[in-house]
Amino acid sequence: MYSGNMIFSDFIFSPNPYLLKAQSTLEDGVFLTNVSGEGEFEGENAFSKYKRLKEIFSAGETAWLRMPMIKPLKAKLVELTLTEDARENMIGYSFRFQEVKEEYSSKNEMSFISVGEQKSVWDIEKDYAADAERILELNESISDCYDVHSGERIRIS
User: Fold this and answer.
1) Is residue 104 a part of any domain in this protein?
2) What pLDDT, on a 0 to 100 scale, did the predictor assign at position 51?
3) Which of 11, 18, 134, 148 has the most crowded Cβ, counting Cβ within 10 A?
4) Domains in the chain: how many in total?
């Protein structure tokens, strides 16, 4: 699992939100995750960070959401609230992301990639929002997270 800062699209939450809640719901037979939380941006660029997050919210884009200790998911930022008046060098916010139900042409659809130079399963997990343990399960030829070779075609889902 990912253990760094929370990231959505190209936006890095720094620092990570101080409150984070993930809740699964069942929709049309598929479990989807909603992630909500609260945080504060601090420093000279606090307002510009909030403004950038608001631009992403307004655009309604769907992107990968990566968070510590939670499997990456394709999501959309559906709520963003300024939780307190901006003070000098600090702005509080709350948010909610909703996982996007992906449509597949087949329930057995598989995703493959070609491994780049000097990549490990950990790098692939980060780059493709895949799960390292699942990659190892799907590829019997890979004995550990460093046993991948440049140009090798592997299954990631």
Assistant:
1) no
2) 93
3) 148
4) 2
CA contacts within 13 A on the Cβ side of 19: 10
Question: Is 51 contained in some domain?
Answer: yes
> Which residues have C-beta within 8 Å of that of residue 130, sequence separation ≥ 6?
72, 124, 156, 157
Alpha helices in the chain (DSSP H): 46-59, 121-128, 132-138
For the chain, list residues with pLDDT below 50: 1-2, 104-108
Return the residue matching tokens 């597949």.
104
Separation CA 55–CA 49 (nearest Å): 10
User: Where does residue 47 rank: exposed (0-12), middle (13-18), buried (19+ CB within 10 A)?
Assistant: middle
Dump pLDDT digits (tens) for 48-64: 999 999 999 999 989 88
Query: What is the extent of the structural domain holding 144?
Result: 112-155
